[in-house]
Amino acid sequence: MYSVVVLFLGLSLLMYCLFGGADFGAGILEAFTPKRSREKGENLTYQAIGPVWEANHIWLILVVVILFTGFPRVYAEISVALHIPLTLMLVGIVLRGCSFTFRHYDAIHDRSHDYYSRVFVFSSVGTSLFLGVIAGALSLGRITNASTVSFAERFVRPWFNWFSFSVGLFACCIFAFLAAVYLIGEAREVRVRHVLWQQALRANLATVLAGSLVFLAAWLDGFDLVGRLLHHPFGTACLFLATASLPLLWYSLRRSWVILPRFLAGFQVSMILLAWIWIQYPLVVQVADGQNLTLQNTRAPEATLNALGWALLVGSGLILPALFYLLKSFKGDLSWPAEPKHS
Amino acid sequence: MEDLLSARLQMAVSLGFHIIFACIGMVMPFLMAFSHWRWLRTGRKEYLDLTKTWSKGVAIFFATGAVSGTVLSFELGLLWPEFMRHAGPIIGMPFSWEGTAFFIEAIALGLFLYGWNRINRWVHWVTGVIVGISGVASGIFVVAANAWMNSPAGFDWVNGQAINVDPVAAMFNRAWFSQALHMTLAAFVSTCFAVAGIHALLLRRHENHPLHQPALKIALSFGAVAAFLQPISGDISAKSVAERQPAKLAAMEALFETSQPASLVLGGIPDETRQRVDYAIHLPGMLGFLAHGDFNAQVTGLDRIPRDQRPPVLVTHLAFQVMVGCGMLLMALGLAFVVIRWRFKHLLSHRTFLTVVALATPLGFLAVEAGWTVTEVGRQPWVIYGILRTKDALTPMPGLVYPLALFTGLYLVLAGLVTWLMVRQIKALHGSYAPKLTKV
């Protein structure tokens, strides 16, 4: 059952990055949407993510539940060492979820609308940034559980560094890219689609730049990222595939295609996440002094993993058909019902 | 402020905030589904409008509840990492089922809210019912995890470590059923009477409004049934607590000395230093009857509990009185509604009746908050009863007063905003219904 649990942990993380990430990205994109198409963009965001909005964010809860049930020490140590970025991320999650729903359901359309939008945009950026910061801090290896060190050493230094923030920036860019590509298919007007194609291309270039920054920041912080990659040929292969598919993506965006970019964007994000997981596995928290926390040395007793594994298997038997029906009901149609197709 | 106190307050604020949204998320779908069903059967437009009006409220409350619930799942670790290190593997099972139920709830809600005219209308109705069922299920699972903290089971505690973990036995601990039943009914009582109260208030302003009248009837009918069942479940809970957690029962009842027969202390202000209760009414023998089913039974007082294991008496006792008092008032109101509905139908729109229902709006949620205070404060100083103390579960992170201030401020703003949004919903509703009103 250990492998089932680990598989679901990875899968939930991937789903959260793909679907939750695209939601975050939609918020980030709003900041870069030209004024005249802003309202169109907002409506589009609702149509696209409204029905699946809540479901997209429950993947994170699954990650948390799997961690504290199956790997309780990992959960406890992360919660202590990364208390500050986790808290900031949570504030972001609350503000974002509320401002998105409030903006949609507020019965009266007045100036408050602009405030919701502003909060939505800022919290989308903030939440993505801190999600990335947390991921970066797990890899970097400055987390310590020594109680003798100073406050800054124990609670700030592990995450307040170039590397973690570069990963945060990278997360913002790649989420925005994902969102733009997803939204293209949802748009019902040529003009909006063209704005989104532009945004997708720009966000993709920003992602590539931010990705290079991650390597630079790793070097600045004395973290041998390249060395780690070289040690894990499979991880390197994943990263290579993600990069190698870029020209095809650019070509398909230039040609104003809809389906292939979507597929490629999902593929690239999956490959990058897989590379990260592969480099890390079974390590979860790289600890500065003392034993690293791995999925193996923190695993819960067998009885717990069995119960958790079965709950996940049975649960997904219930959830996946329902989720499929939800997506089918709202996401089946990528055609142009409103206007004839222009090229 | 002391870190332990800050952490406990932050947990209290987060739970106290979340519980309201969780209750509404559990119960509103049923009210909505009932109205929806009436529309499907009768085709009367006011039921359709009522369903849609309620569903907008549900969307706002559900979103707020979902994010505040996400915060809680992290706060368990942020504030109590030692607790989660031990408890995670033992009570993870209800949490993983809760995750599943919540996931299904979110999917069904998406289908329900956006499914108008897009999916088959009976399938659409079923998605609404599924929202309610999975909402209640996820509530029950979370409460089962809390029940385990009151009645730890499914492991052996050896040298400060849990071994021989049995997640199934942990989930079905001795407190799970009584707590889950009590909480589920409480959710129905609080939400239904709050909904009824708001519609009653609006009916006072807009007499015979075509939406508010059926809304009031539906909410009060559900609420009255739940309010009648609640004392039975309260009795089951009291007997269960008496058996498992004598210290909590003694604090609830402010029973400083073990007595036989034991009198029930109504109201009063417990004085912990002088070990007595001032200004209280004593009902001889009643406590023995309520706790053990025998007027002559002995009830353990705080004197039998070692000093360092006694829960705070003042807060627990007062909260308990508030909970029972509010519950009784709502039961009386439920009874009045049943009688009026049965024999004096014309009084349903009487201003005095509407005023009373409107005044009762907050009582149910007051009882819910007070009840949680009883169960949480009454368990102190333990986080896992008899096993791990709350202070030993605390995070080593200093300065916890800052996150406390941050989340308190955030939740205050959100509470204000949600209220404001509701007022605006109602304004908009009356705007769109105005022409019809003048006719009635």
Name the poorly predicted regions of chain B: none
Dominant shape of chain A: globular
Biggest sheet overview of chain B:
2 strands, antiparallel
Helicity range of chain A: over 70%
Order of helices and strands of chain A: HHHHHHHHHHHHHEEH
Spell the H/E element sequence of chain B. Answer: HHHHEEHHHHEEHHHHEEHH
- Helix and strand content put the structural class of chain B at mainly alpha
Helix/sheet category of chain A: mainly alpha
Give the rounded overall mean pLDDT of chain B.
90
Largest interface summary: A-B, 65 and 68 residues
| Proportion of strand residues of chain B | 5-15%
> Major sheet of chain A: size, sense and barrel closure?
2 strands, antiparallel
The best one-word shape of chain B is globular
* Helix content percent band of chain B: over 70%
Number of separate helices of chain B: 14
What keyword list fits this structure?
heterodimer, A: 343 residues, mainly alpha, two-stranded antiparallel ribbon, 14 helices, 2 strands, 77% helix, disordered C terminus, B: 440 residues, 72% helix
Task: Describe the protein.
Chain A has 343 residues and is mostly helical. Chain A has one domain (2-325). Chain A has 14 helices and two strands, in the order αααααααααααααββα. The longest helix of chain A has 31 residues, at 190-220. With 440 residues, chain B is mostly helical. Chain B has a domain at 174-398. Chain B has 14 helices and six strands. In chain B, the strands form three sheets. In chain B, strands 1-2 form a two-stranded antiparallel sheet. The longest helix of chain B has 40 residues, at 3-42. Chain B starts with a helix and ends with a helix.
